[in-house]
Amino acid sequence: MRGTVRWMRVAGAVSTVGVLLACSGLQLDLPIGKSFDNVAACQSYVEAYNRLDCVTDAFRISPTDMCPDALDDYPCDMSEHYQCMADRIMCSDGRPDVLDMHTACGDRTCD
User: Fold this and answer.
1) Which residues pair with 95 in a beta bridge?
2) Three-class HEC string of the chain
3) Per-residue pLDDT tens for 33-85?
4) C-alpha pair distances (Å), 36 with each of 2, 63, 66, 75, 104
5) Which residues lie closer than 8 Å to 16 by C-beta, 6 or more apart?
6) Which residues pair with 90 in a beta bridge?
7) How does 9-38 read in b/e, with b if 16+ C-beta sit within 10 Å?
8) What is the pLDDT of residues 21-34, one digit of tens each?
9) Which helix (H) or strand (E) segment is 91 a member of?
10) How many CB atoms lie within 10 A of CB 68?
11) Is 80 helix (H, G, I), strand (E, B) or coil?
12) How far apart are CA 46 and CA 72, in angstroms?
């Protein structure tokens, strides 16, 4: 019984805080409902990669596989990241040099 009463108090407190925040006018800049054109940016990178002289037909990347539609639902705009990758990808010793690109552009994460 004591646990049930404690749980009810916690639930009541959480509900109260939620109502107060909702009525306070506080706005949180969350990416819910936003959409970015990350697919097009990713496809530009894939095109740059596939245009490299050192990438043969057997090693070309599929834009469909590499850039799924779900990228547009990513919580931030990744176009600068993909543009950095497109600008940095190059051939070295007959192969794509992704090390310099990765060092310069980093991982695909939101700041």
Assistant:
1) 92
2) CHHHHHHHHHHHHHHHHHHHHHHCCCCCCCCCCCCCCHHHHHHHHHHHHHCCCCCCHHHCCCHHHHCCHHHHHCCCCCHHHHHHHHHHCEEECCEEEHHHHHHHHCCCCCC
3) 567 889 999 999 999 999 999 999 999 999 999 999 988 888 889 999 999 99
4) 49, 17, 16, 8, 23
5) none
6) 97
7) eeeeeeeeeeeeeeeeeeeeeeeeeeebeb
8) 455 444 444 455 56
9) strand 90-92
10) 13
11) helix
12) 16
pTM, two decimal places: 0.65
Q: Which residue has the tokens 């176009």?
A: 79
Give the DSSP per-residue string, 15-34: HHHHHHHHHTT------TT-
